[in-house]
Amino acid sequence: MDTILILTILVVICALAFDFINGFHDTANAIATSVSTRALSPRRAIILAAVMNFIGAITFTGVAKTITKDIVDPFALENGSLVILAALVAAIIWNLLTWYYGIPSSSSHALIGSIAGAAISAAGIGILNYSGFIKILQALLISPFIALAAGFIMMSLFGLIFKNTNLYKTNKGFRIFQIFTAALQSFTHGTNDAQKAMGIITMALIAANYHSSDDIPLWVRISAALAMGIGTSIGGWKIIKTVGGKIMKIRPVNGAAADLSSAIIIFGATLIHLPVSTTHVISSAIMGVGSAQRVKGVKWGVAGKIVLTWVITLPITALLAAVVYQLLNLIF
Hints:
Oligomer: single chain
Pfam families: PHO4 (PF01384)
Protein name: Inorganic phosphate transporter
Organism: Metabacillus rhizolycopersici
Keywords: Membrane, Transmembrane, Transmembrane helix, Transport
Distance between the termini: 13 Å
Membrane topology: Multi-pass membrane protein
Helix content: over 70%
């Protein structure tokens, strides 16, 4: 086998590994509130999330096409397979580190930062597609603030609508409603996050001249969806504990408000073909919900650590990917 074919196979394997890790890393966010309020047992929540993630992943391809062509033009990329492999290795390393320490960092930031860093390391800063890259960065940066506001508004509305309702009955009703919101949250996660690995694989196929357009092959869609579904079934208990309990004390009404508002934001981004961080959106929605009830009820120290991780992910993964690219370049 020639070097390009070997690299392409390695890219496919690493992209599916990235989606698998994303499954137990990021999907934990989607079911964290329903598990913490005991609306669903961990086992049922994980099975529900795995199924809904798979369905969401094979339903849409718009975000995958954005990843394929809007950061770097794959048709103009020399050593494209090596660049993409370096990006995936760096993103996987960062995801595993943050998962190990239970920090809900963004797989989206990790992947996009890694692609940019590896590409710049290979061909200089001019290789970036500035308009597309800035558009993606804007979506990643603005979406948490929108989610914060949406969570605040959603919780305020719930507070007005149910202010005269018996607390026990309200919590019981919202616990049932959370089964629906957890399913919706997992579906929207699949429509956005699983797309990123699809885009990466398609980008590698184009760079290696095995594919001639930004259309996502069916086998890529199914394999990426399966990888994320299997990863989800493994679960991510460390992330669930952070998102589901360490930001604020979550009751069923809080969980439903956070799930519903964040699912709307994520699905809205999917419809306009923009990748967003489900981690950022869900965590921000929880902060917004907590602020609507009682600002002091939010553990802003934990929230601050999460925000710090968001800020440092892009530059660290870009630098890491640049180093990994140079190391791989020596090998290949």
